[in-house]
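Follow-up to my post from last week.
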Amino acid sequence: NIPIASVERVAKYIRCLKHLQKKGEEIVSSKKLAEHTQVTPEQVRKDLSYFGKFGKTGTGYNIKKVVKRLSNILKGRKNWNVCIIGAGALGTALSRYQGFKSAGYNIVALFDKDPEKIGKKIGSAEVYDIKKFSDITKKKDIKLAIIAVPAESIEEVEEYIAKSQIKGVLNFVPVTLNFNTKRKIAIIEVDLAQKLYILSYLTKK
Amino acid sequence: NIPIASVERVAKYIRCLKHLQKKGEEIVSSKKLAEHTQVTPEQVRKDLSYFGKFGKTGTGYNIKKVVKRLSNILKGRKNWNVCIIGAGALGTALSRYQGFKSAGYNIVALFDKDPEKIGKKIGSAEVYDIKKFSDITKKKDIKLAIIAVPAESIEEVEEYIAKSQIKGVLNFVPVTLNFNTKRKIAIIEVDLAQKLYILSYLTKK
Ligand SMILES: NC(=O)c1ccc[n+]([C@@H]2O[C@H](COP(=O)([O-])OP(=O)(O)OC[C@H]3O[C@@H](n4cnc5c(N)ncnc54)[C@H](O)[C@@H]3O)[C@@H](O)[C@H]2O)c1
Ligand SMILES: NC(=O)c1ccc[n+]([C@@H]2O[C@H](COP(=O)([O-])OP(=O)(O)OC[C@H]3O[C@@H](n4cnc5c(N)ncnc54)[C@H](O)[C@@H]3O)[C@@H](O)[C@H]2O)c1
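User reply:
Got it. Predicted complex:
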């Protein structure tokens, strides 16, 4: 059972390693990986040790092997079908973001209640009526949902999610979620204001 | 000089503490704060020790005092003026997000090159011509910029930023930034795909 703090850092390592891979690099030292992600080399080695024994040559880790193993363990499957609830400004931006697709997360549906938006195509996915949430998420094997609706719509969305087979939720709405179901639903909250706190700290010092 | 990993956790603590404050709570134990942010109580106490001596009663920390001190140190000033470069789907969503304002980060301008967007009001800020970037950021005392343009526009935006007085940048574009200037510019990259890696790990186990 890997500590969540390690999982969070490993997501950063994967991104950094894929970036190095694109530049044609094949080996990386724990020192270099540490510098790119602002942790210590010891922390990098400790985090990676949760994911198995990586044969370390004199010069470092084999990037291809490490990316493959870390991604497999974090993702569990090669591709995930993801939906976005709320086809507004944020939902639209997320639906078009290529970074999800290149990480193996395919946005295959959006849901909204606005008749002006239902039926539209955004990115490579269609906007469906939220009333059809359960049917469509089941049909398209969607287990993950991104929530991007106004705060006042949260209770209604919680109900649709509870009655579906969604297992994980990425929540952008500044409200604590509660699902009226016995099924375990993983929740990650995103608050971009946290990034600005960190940025102002780095800027002022 | 506080380790960046601590600064990142402290941004989470602030958010959690403000949430408890809203619920009317006045004291919090390091155990409770740890549970809410998925770290150990020891880590909480160690992180807070970088920010000063917090008189700890038998039951815990005074929420009001801790939020005030952590925010002051992370922010350095009560309010920051922030601009968004790129008034597209993502830029629009960020401009309307109330979470920035309640943390003391005021979106006071957006910049774009599309004549259809220049002059529009989004959230409580106006969209200006990117050509006027230097003048307007100087006039409005803007030190932080959020970048939300397509990848192909990055070089042009880097030049505008280098020639301005921007000191910190929150970058949503999946490109490594380089600024042709001696001035130190803090950079934080956001890649929401990382959140999905963590979510799929939590979902599958
Ligand atoms: N956490 C962050 O960092 C962050 C950043 C930006 C925005 N946000 C949040 O994201 C949310 C969306 O922001 P936005 O600017 O895209 O808003 P928006 O108003 O542009 O879009 C909201 C969309 O949700 C739809 N909707 C409303 N009720 C619905 C329901 N019951 N079922 C399905 N769809 C419904 C609307 O029709 C609309 O299309 C807001 O809650 C905002 O606070 C968070
Ligand atoms: N990191 C993440 O998690 C994440 C998530 C979503 C989107 N994104 C990225 O954010 C960026 C914006 O996405 P979007 O969906 O809002 O795109 P968009 O096409 O809707 O908006 C881009 C805007 O930038 C403007 N623009 C283009 N060139 C410009 C220039 N030189 N100066 C000023 N403005 C300029 C366009 O006119 C447009 O208004 C993309 O690079 C996308 O990959 C990142």
